[in-house]
Amino acid sequence: MIRTPAPQHRYRDEGSGQLRTGTDAALAGVAAPGWAAVLAGPDWAMADDPAPLGRSPAGRERRNGYLWLAGDHHVHTRHSPETAHRVADQIRHANAYGLDWMAVTDRGRGPHTMDDVEQTNADILVARRDVKDTLVFHGLEWNIPAAGHGTVLVHPGWNEVAVLRTFERFFDGVARSATAPGPDNEALAVAGVRFLADAVTQRRIQDALLLVNHPARRGVNSPHQIRGWRDAGPRIAVGFEGAPGHQAAGIAAPAGQGSARGNYVHQPSAVSFPGYPAESYRTWGGFDWMTATVGGLWDSMLAEGRPWWITANSDSHRIHDDSASHASGGFWPGFFSRTHVGATDFAYAAIMAGLRAGRSWVDHGGLIRGLDVRVRSGRRWATLGDTLIVRRGSPVELTITIDLANGPNWAQFVPSLARVDVIRGAVTGPAADRDAFAAAQTSVAKTFDINRSTGVVAFGYPLGTLDEPFYVRLRGTDGNRGAPGCHGASVDPVGPAMDVVGGADPWTDLWFYTNPIWVLPK
Question: Measuring CA to CA, which residue among 66, 120, 18 is closest to residue 360?
Answer without folding.
Answer: 66
